[in-house]
């Protein structure tokens, strides 16, 4: 296999060759999995910091393929983003989340379900319509659905207006938005300034350094204060130790998520905890 770069033709290294083969295989298998609904969802509890009662869950995609084995989101999502299949995954996760949210509401234990979405997904001018339609079809109250948006990419100037409009339309309908991985991205402040965000999720890299560094503690305290000044709900992700949990309980952080509370689990296991 050869890769053309401009007029040059470059012989591929064995590694790059293997990478391309794997990507091609994964893409074929992913298409099949989407077609056959062979993806599934695990839910990780989000709890009130003080009472530790479940107030929501984050929906996380899982893919166990017969041929390629289980593919972690860390490999799956970038692949899906580069092939455009992220829209299919997004639609699948949204529908699953809505159906599940309705089922928890019917059981008398309504909880918020958070779905991950790259801001790139909101480049699609139909995104708000697709979401509203899915909410209607599943009879899911918009208030039960939340999008966690990441700032992996800088906002492209020419798309800002459109993305803003999509999010505002959804917010008016009752859907809310959380700024995920807060503190690590390109443009946290810009996002907070122009997008209808109601919560920030402090990135796990900060949370996990709490015990080790006083500087990190001060950083986290400042993030919480900033969020409170802006009337935002504060979520901490990746809470792994009792020490981190106890420390966060001394702050104004509202919601906790992480292995110290519970790992991502199947619906039946969430039900046992509600
Ligand atoms: P994220 O949104 O930051 O999600 C949290 C990740 O941290 C999840 O990994 C979760 O299993 C893991 N985690 C939870 N508690 C802890 C903890 O205490 N310690 C540590 N070290 N990790 C913890 P996962 O499920 O592998 O997902 C990785 C990333 O893939 C997610 O990061 C998210 O950005 C993306 N992702 C997952 N599902 C979807 C999806 O349906 N759509 C999109 N667009 N992205 C998704
Ligand atoms: Ca997330
Ligand atoms: Ca995150
Ligand atoms: Ca993170």
**Count of separate DSSP helical elements:** 10
Order of helices and strands: EEHEEEHHEHEHEHEHHEHEH
Helix content, binned percent: 40-55%
Poorly predicted sequence stretches spanning 5 or more consecutive residues? none
Write the layout of secondary structure elements.
Elements (H helix, E strand, L loop, with lengths): L1 E4 L2 E4 L2 H22 L3 E10 L5 E12 L3 E3 L1 H11 L2 H21 L5 E7 L8 H12 L6 E6 L6 H17 L2 E7 L5 H7 L4 E4 L1 H4 L6 H16 L3 E4 L5 H8 L5 E2 L10 H7 L1
Parallel strand pairs: 4-6, 6-7, 7-8, 8-9, 9-10, 10-11
Antiparallel strand pairs: 1-2, 3-4, 3-11, 4-5
Helix pairs in contact: 3-4, 4-5
Protein name: EAL domain-containing protein
Organism: Lysinibacillus alkalisoli
Quick description:
The chain has 274 residues and is α/β, with parallel strands linked by helices.
Overview of this structure, please?
The mean pLDDT is 93. The protein has ten helices and eleven strands. The strands form two sheets. The protein has an eight-stranded mixed beta barrel, surrounded by six helices. The chain has a two-stranded antiparallel sheet with strand order 1-2. It is globular. The protein has 274 residues and is α/β, with parallel strands linked by helices. The termini are far apart.
